[in-house]
Amino acid sequence: MHKIVLFGGTTEGxxxxxxxxxxxxxxxxxxxxxxxxxxxxxxxxxxxxxKRLKPGPMRKLxxxxxxxxxxxxxxxxxxxxxxxxxxxCDEMGIEYIRVLRESIEIEGAVKxxxxxxxxxxxxxxxxxxxxxxxxxxxxxxxxxxxxxERVYLRMLPSPEGMGHCLDLGYPMKNLCxxxxxxxxxxxxxxxxxxxxxxxxxxxxxxxGGFLEKTDAxxxxxxxVVVLSRLVKEEGISVEEAKDTIxxxxx
Length: 250
Known about the structure:
This protein is an alpha/beta fold. It is built from ten helices and eleven strands.
């Protein structure tokens, strides 16, 4: 049985998976896709489950594994899955531990609080838009006027994500499939190559290379537009999560 279940798919999830594997802690790591599994470094007794879990199968997993602790290291914007995880833990008497990344304020950035507000703002601007928000927000960005000419997307290099964006009508030349985080110098080179005028990003914290991205954009003379986190959460850092695992399992 595996008394720890970790929900990952983020840099935090990757770091905790490596920690669990290095310390041989029996645990199950849940990620949404097969690509999410491929970027992880692990070995038994850690098991990775690459599929999205709906509430019913999630509860069955917890019950079958006699789960005692759940670490939720999903993305700050994945509010729906976090809600389901916490509800299942509360109902089943399992300790729920939210792993958060630090929030960072960017001076001079335009902050918007929803995708609708973001689209409205972008439709009042001119120039090329470089979105680092991944394939998940690609559909919403099709509401930007002339999106096929104006919007460039950077996303994980998964066939599903790339195919989704092509189906939405994005030209192949506007799609950048690659695994981050990236250095400031790399970001600057990519922004200059595209000729981007506006960076659109989520308030993801510096674990995901947030400052390297926004600093590069400002140095290139670009406008920075940040989608704020939808929900203010309480939780612990990756290092605090490691300390928790040490105290409970090692």
